[in-house]
Amino acid sequence: MSIPLHISPRLIPNIASLYTEVNRIFMEYIDNAIDSAESFYDEKQNAYSKSIEIALTIHGDNYRNGKVIISDNCSGITNFTKVVQSIGNSDKKADFTTNGQFGYGIYSFMAACSKLEITSKTEKNDALYIPIEKEQFNADKQDDVSFPSPKVIKNFRYTSGTEICLSGFEKDTWKYIDIEELKAEIEKHFELLLGRKNLTIQLSCINSPLFSDRREYICTPFDYNKYEGDEYKDDVDRLSYTKRGRVPEPVDLRLGKPIRIFIKVTKGKEINKRPVFICKGRRIAEIKDIKSFRSNHKSELWDHPNVTGYIDLSDFLEPTIAQDDFKNSNRKRALFGYLIEIEPLILDVVKDVNKTSEERHYQELEDRLNQALSKLARLDSMNYRTDYLSGNEINLQKGGAGQGIEEGVGSKDRGNYPHEESSVERIGENEGEGKGAGGNSGNIPSGNEGEYALNKETDNPFEDSEFKGGEKKKSGFNIRIDDREPDIDSATNEPMRSNIYGSEIRIFKQHSDFQKRIDISRRGEPRITQRLITYLAGEITVHYKDKFHTKKGTQPEYNKSLFSDLVDFVYQFESMLQDLAGKNLSDLSN
């Protein structure tokens, strides 16, 4: 006897088209398997009474013969007829322990392939098999669609359980199947359920071009203990909201099952795992993406890269069919109002983390400034040499008058003979690549990495070299963005924008002129503006040029060309930092 369909046939493929990611389709069948295991779950022990095994295996080497099989040893399907015909009226919607509400998930395969085969067995009954093909739904009336009666199958491998086989994949869909992406999605979506004892979700490939070897993956829950940080925990068993009307009055809600709030603010490491809402053990959405949650701190708190965790609602709220929000209710108003009340407590911790992260990111900005100055100093030295030679017509040929002139002023030869080292210090050449205040402040060796590769044996153009114990002292012209209050200029009694200490330029971050040139993102993070780049280039150039001419013992003539040279150096410096414009400080570490 055939099984009739109780819904318009053309509606089902249209609903299936909402699944735009093939890996999300497989999640539906894994979700169904977890639902089927609830009868074995002991909440007090947080464990299943038997070992629950859910497996997804990818078979085949192309879309024509490819198959994806999802199997489990759970309870099995008790009513095949209801599964295939009563779409929109799922039995699970009344069960707070299971996730299904509408029964559409079983038909999600239509978004990726053409055939679904279901084999399932309960402990007391034989295994039954039924195939469902997408083309069956290419009909106008529900009376035109029916399914064959389930076929009895012998020798099913589980005492109870279900096997889903998907085949007939579309070519474009097959190539987007990604087992590692699916693993990551499962671990995010079921992170609390994966913490249950006696549950294993395994993914593997057999004869698949997706992986040359037969690799197996076991899904594991996220380990929050791996990261140092401050935690906010609360089990909320009581909420309240204000009843609207002519006379507003407070209404208390007592929860049958507490809402578990776990928020962690990590220190030092940005893990980029935003806190989520979880309903019946499944992730609904990241808190920052819930449109109806009208918080003023979504960016600086719920979208902060150091803030992670979850709010486990159990069955307190009902998600929308799109699973990206919750249905309107007084319960939702009460919960969201409570979350807004506790936000300041979490924000206090976030601000401390922001300060620590900001210091680290400023060190990375210092590195970029040092690298840029190092390269410009070399160019500046060569430009000076060219100008000098042009004006004085010095002969640099072997044996000529230019032999023995220090580099940066004349000849590249050092000393009186080609292989003799000169003690004359070179100006503006091969400065150290430079690192920020993080461990190398004021003592910057040369580097040889990347675009700004330099000689490792280098003289500091701004301080005398010293020999101690037969070793040359490391040196380097260092730039530091200093968080202290600015120095006071003794002549004007005004705060200084920057100052120089030996070979270190200190730019005072707390100076009002610096602060005016910082843009703060919605997340509360400093952003590098074009104005700040120009400001930094100008401050550094003044100190660099002053040292440059002081070290050479020259006294440049006060004229228009002097200012043109100064401004030209600023422009060059600004150009080398142009890629930083508009970036958040944290982007420098990516």
Describe the structure.
With 590 residues, the protein is α+β, with helices and mostly antiparallel strands. It has 11 helices and 23 strands. The strands form 6 sheets. Strands 2, 3, 4, 5, 6, 8, 9, 10 and 11 form a 9-stranded mixed beta sheet that branches. The chain has a 5-stranded mixed beta sheet with strand order 12-13-16-14-15, with helices on one face. A 3-stranded mixed beta sheet has the order 19-21-20. Strand 17 (467-468) and strand 18 (471-472) form a beta hairpin. Helix 7 packs across helix 11 and helix 10 (530-552) packs across helix 11 (560-576). It is elongated and about 100 Å long.
Protein traits:
alpha+beta; 3 domains; 590 residues; 11 helices; 9-stranded mixed β-sheet; elongated; 5-stranded mixed β-sheet; Heat Shock Protein 90
Beta fraction of the residues? 15-25%
Number of strands: 23
* Biggest sheet details: 9 strands, mixed
Query: Which structural class do the helices and strands define?
Result: alpha+beta
Cα-atom Rg, whole angstroms?
34 Å
What's the end-to-end separation, in Å? 62 Å
Q: How many discrete structural domains?
A: 3
Q: Which shape, going by the Cα principal axes?
A: elongated
Average pLDDT, to the nearest integer? 78
Q: Return residue spans where pLDDT drops below 50 for at least 5 consecutive residues.
A: 88-102, 386-476
Estimate percent helicity.
25-40%
The DSSP helix count reads 11
